[in-house]
Design goal:
Number of strands: 14
Structural class: alpha/beta
CATH topology of the largest domain: TIM Barrel
Oligomer: single chain
Strand order of the largest sheet: 3-4-5-6-9-10-11-12-13-14
Order of helices and strands: EEHHHEEEEEHEHEHEHEHHHEHEHE
Largest sheet: 10 strands, mixed
CATH architecture of the largest domain: Alpha-Beta Barrel
Strand content: 15-25%
Bound molecules: iron/sulfur cluster
Radius of gyration: 21 Å
């Protein structure tokens, strides 16, 4: 259903058309007495052309455009600042309609770009290695704010046309904002708009087990689970969510998650010196993941000013990775990009001055 939104001053906002799925747009257009196919036309203007003005929508009559501008709005995050890392990674600080800031990161690949989008302003999960956690939770992002990060950067940066991978690993826990994340994925994959393949979208979670099972029932999408420890004691210290959904419950949910064809579920593991990166930890991890159809992404902890943890030495990392390879796990050492501009994993804060 099309819902009313209120801003900070409790003023009712006109519906934002970027929040709509195709079905909702059709319902909206029908309620105005217009033909259903107009919904698709509007979706194309919004998502493919990146239009923010009804004036641009020249396949609609002038009267209809005027009517739309009186009863609805088009709003998406605005670029406040873009910083570039030595390695080419770009971090965009984006301003939301209510004045809050979020961050999206553009990560260069060989021939294309990956965008890391945020799903919440702040985060309530309190993972101890994460800078976003320090600012606490502000609010969930709306579907238009999630999808809008991509549309804004696609249309307003030189890298835009090359963005064709999406990872939901920015600020926030996507599955704690379940309905809006799911709706955003449906909008991103719709053929009326950006038409992004579900193979090119990855949702990352800190381990909300019931929502993992539900996501597998609702949609077919790549899943990455932030694991970071081989036992409950260590994981609960690093990630408080583990007290609610301990490893047994989490890994059971992961086993139920349907990965189509030859695709594998990803476990992310941040290597922290003296905490979870010893050879014994690697052996425990290998035994813990027995029976999971998975691959492992190892990420070296990114230190940030005031961070309580340290990065492990290259030798420690090498031994950890080799131990998992010896146990026949596909194990990648993911080079974390953008750490000099605090754009790497766990370093996003939405701070205007960062
Ligand atoms: S790692 Fe992710 S889930 Fe954990 S606090 Fe940071 S943003 Fe939230």
């Amino acid at each position: 259903m099309i819902q009313q939104q209120r801003n900070k001053s409790d003023v009712i906002l006109l519906p934002n058309l970027l929040d709509f799925t195709l079905e909702e747009m059709e319902e909206f257009i029908s309620s105005l007495g217009k033909e259903k196919f107009r919904a698709r036309q509007i979706m194309k203007w919004l998502h493919q052309s990146g239009s923010v003005s009804f004036e641009d929508m020249t396949t609609l009559s002038r009267d209809f455009r005027t009517k739309l501008s009186k009863i609805s709005r088009v709003s998406r995050p605005q670029i406040e600042k873009i910083q570039e890392s030595k390695d080419g990674t770009k971090k965009a600080l984006l301003r939301l309609e209510d004045g809050l800031f979020i961050e999206s990161v553009l990560i260069p690949g060989k021939n294309n770009w990956t965008i890391c989008v945020s799903t919440q302003a702040g985060c309530a999960m309190d993972c101890k290695f994460c800078l976003t956690a320090r600012q606490g939770f502000k609010r969930n992002l709306t579907p238009s704010e999630i999808v809008g990060q991509l549309i804004t950067l696609k249309h307003e940066t030189p890298e835009g046309p090359g963005i064709n991978n999406i990872v939901m690993m920015g600020m926030g826990e996507p599955l704690a904002n379940y309905d809006n994340t799911l709706k955003a994925i449906k909008i991103l994959t719709g053929d009326f708009g950006l038409g992004i393949s579900n193979r090119k979208i990855t949702v990352s979670t800190c381990g909300l087990a019931p929502q993992i099972v539900q996501l597998g029932l609702d949609i077919c999408i790549n899943l990455a689970v932030s694991l970071n420890a081989p036992d409950d004691e260590t994981r609960s210290k690093l990630m408080p969510i583990n007290k609610k959904y301990p490893l047994e419950v989490l890994l059971d949910a992961c086993k139920k998650y349907p990965m189509p064809g030859r695709r594998l579920l990803t476990f992310e593991y941040i290597l922290i010196d003296g905490v979870n990166s010893s050879v014994q930890d690697a052996r425990k991890l290998a035994s813990l993941l027995k029976g999971q159809r998975c691959k492992l992404n190892l990420i070296i902890f990114n230190e940030y000013p005031g961070s309580p943890f340290k990065s492990p030495s290259p030798k420690t990392v090498e031994v950890f990775q080799q131990t998992l390879i010896d146990h026949h796990y596909t194990t990648m050492l993911r080079k974390s990009k953008g750490s000099d501009i605090l754009a790497a994993c766990g370093q996003l804060s939405g701070a205007v001055g960062s």
